[in-house]
Amino acid sequence: GPLRLLLSGPASSGARATPSDLGAGGNRIHLTVDDLDTEIDRLRGAGLTFLSDVVSGPGGRQILLTDPAGNLIELFEPAR
Predict the structure, then answer these.
(1) Phi, psi of 62, rounded to the nearest 5 degrees
(2) Which of 7, 30, 65, 70 has its CB surrounded by the most CB atoms within 10 Å?
(3) Structural domain contains residue 58
């Protein structure tokens, strides 16, 4: 299927290092969602926990969690 690979330049917010206390590598799987708050509520209702609070920037909002294998997942809602 289609793959969209995002690489962050040195001046972008995505170039900031992932905090080392998250217990995951610096790479992450990036999933774009239409409504971040709805997804957070849905996943919390299913028993998932998040590694960060919602972070907002000029490009949108994001939150981090891990999948069952320990891979870092970013849920991202683009700015409108």
Answers:
(1) -145, 160
(2) 65
(3) yes
Q: What is the CATH number of the domain that holds 72?
A: 3.30.720.110
Identify whether 17 is part of a domain.
no
Place of tokens 């080392």: 20
DSSP state of 20: G
Q: Which domain holds residue 74?
A: 24-78
Q: How many domains does the chain have?
A: 1
- DSSP H or E run through 42: helix 36-45
How far is Cα of residue 20 from the mean position of the Cα atoms in its chain?
15
pTM beyond 0.90, yes or no: no
pLDDT tens sequence for the chain (80 residues): 887 776 666 666 555 556 666 555 567 888 999 999 999 999 999 999 999 899 888 888 999 999 888 888 999 998 88
Give the pair of three-digit tokens for residue 5. Answer: 């690979």
